[in-house]
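Researcher: Here's the sequence for the chain we discussed earlier.
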Amino acid sequence: MSFTVFIILIIGCIAVISASLWFIARQLKVNRLREERIRAGESFVAEERQKRIDSIQILLKAVGTDEKLTWIETSIRVKNLLDQLSVDLSQHDDISAFYIITEKTEHIPTHEQWKSLPKDARAKFSNEMTRYETEYLEHLKRAKAALLVYSFDS
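Model: Thanks. This is the structure I predict for it:
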């Protein structure tokens, strides 16, 4: 083998090694960026989850002390936040009150639909909500206490 062929083979090997190193470096950079995006996404999900947990805690602390926030409204909001957290506590002895109240009142119009109802229909629904709040008050209070100490970490 001549010296020229040997040099050409060495240059060819160096070119292949250089291309391989460039490709590996590029893949490492892409992987690093992907991992950063994954960490950012996980951080965002954790923050959003904590916001929902904090919202539940705030609602529970406010209900019963603020006349503007009813047990019905709290139940609906708490149940929706639990659904967003993918936590199903409908079988929990105490916390199930929020699910029961939400289910019993889901036929009642809200927001703009409520405003457009005739007075007698609004009175009928208001009486129904008051009856549910009275009937389930003790269960709702137990649910509030149980959910305030519930650990969402599991």
